[in-house]
């Protein structure tokens, strides 16, 4: 039997969700330095006290937000329909150019300077990296028992991350599409 | 005849150079939020007044630092000896994993949130991107008149950037070497 929730629990869950989405939005727009709990609470239309009830510290809130980002991205990946490799490559790269990637990037960079954030973000990134790799192997129909296939898929995901970074300051979409088209061909040949 | 400089000019140039190197070091360690002109001046062993004589505003100092980073990276690239493609790929990727890349990354992310920094960093990044591509084509002996070759080299540089990002929080060296070895093979086949 599924869990039965009260209206109060539903409201609490909705508030939590709104805070996480606001944390991601604030990170993407204002960066770590500009994203205090107060800024996020105001964006979410929630009192500072209510925000602190859900997330006692700033680190709790933003670690929760990274986790949320990670789950959203994995869900988006798993929801991709089975299709040709060129479409899969394009969809994988698309994951790294939206607001979720921008927020994750802000957190990675902040974590590189903030000791309190670093271990949590590092652990989460490793977990997300493994999960993304697993889903990509599956979508691409890649046979990892063949030598070099594992590294080929990893390199593709590194390229996708680099393309996301190139898109940070300007809209790099036209160039990106040409690069993705070409590398989808090379990848298809490499995966056999 | 080369320019003749006075001892005073030499000292001024040395101070400027020290400020730029300190700005890069501070960015890599403290990020944009923690890198004020005072912090950089103290790191360089220079008075705040002397720092402001060279760089009137914080934006001037850090734009100068980005330019300095860019010139250092181009010089390092051009200084690579002519060698096999696998070595060139490894050397290109190495450029994206050191303190120069970490500093540039901090600036890109700060520029995405700081309107005063953004146009300068965007312009500089476009210039550096073109220059890096030109040097990479040359080192790889790639024939850009052939269809797809331009995009193949661009994708390689995007992968290098993504590998640099993956190295931000943890030492990703062992995995990176395996990915680079495999992608050097794919690249070599693609370039013919």
TrEMBL record, chains A, B:
PROSITE patterns linked to this entry: HTH_TETR_2 (PS50977)
Cross-referenced Pfam families: TetR_N
InterPro entries: Homeodomain-like_sf, HTH-type_TetR-like_transc_reg, HTH_TetR
Domain (HTH tetR-type) ranges: 13-73
Residue ranges flagged as DNA-binding region: 36-55
Protein keywords: DNA-binding
Keyword Coiled coil appears in the UniProt entry: no
Top-level lineage group: Bacteria
The name this protein goes by in its record: TetR/AcrR family transcriptional regulator
Organism: Streptomyces argenteolus
């Amino acid at each position: 039997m599924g869990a039965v929730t009260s209206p109060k629990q539903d409201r609490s869950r909705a508030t939590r969700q709104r805070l996480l989405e606001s944390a991601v939005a604030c990170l993407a727009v204002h960066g770590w330095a500009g994203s205090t709990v107060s800024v996020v609470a105001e964006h979410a239309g929630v009192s500072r006290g209510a925000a602190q009830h859900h997330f006692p510290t700033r680190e709790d809130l933003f670690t929760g937000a990274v986790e949320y980002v990670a789950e959203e991205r994995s869900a988006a990946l798993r929801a991709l329909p089975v299709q040709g490799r060129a479409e899969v490559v394009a969809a994988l790269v698309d994951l790294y150019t939206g607001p979720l990637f921008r927020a994750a990037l802000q957190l990675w960079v902040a974590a590189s300077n903030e000791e309190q954030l670093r271990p949590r973000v590092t652990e989460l990134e490793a977990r997300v990296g493994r999960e993304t790799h697993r889903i990509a192997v599956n979508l691409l129909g890649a046979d990892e028992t063949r030598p070099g296939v594992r590294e080929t898929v990893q390199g593709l995901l590194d390229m996708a991350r680099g393309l996301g970074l190139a898109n940070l300051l300007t809209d790099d979409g036209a160039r990106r599409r040409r690069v993705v088209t070409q590398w989808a061909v090379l990848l298809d040949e490499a995966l056999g």
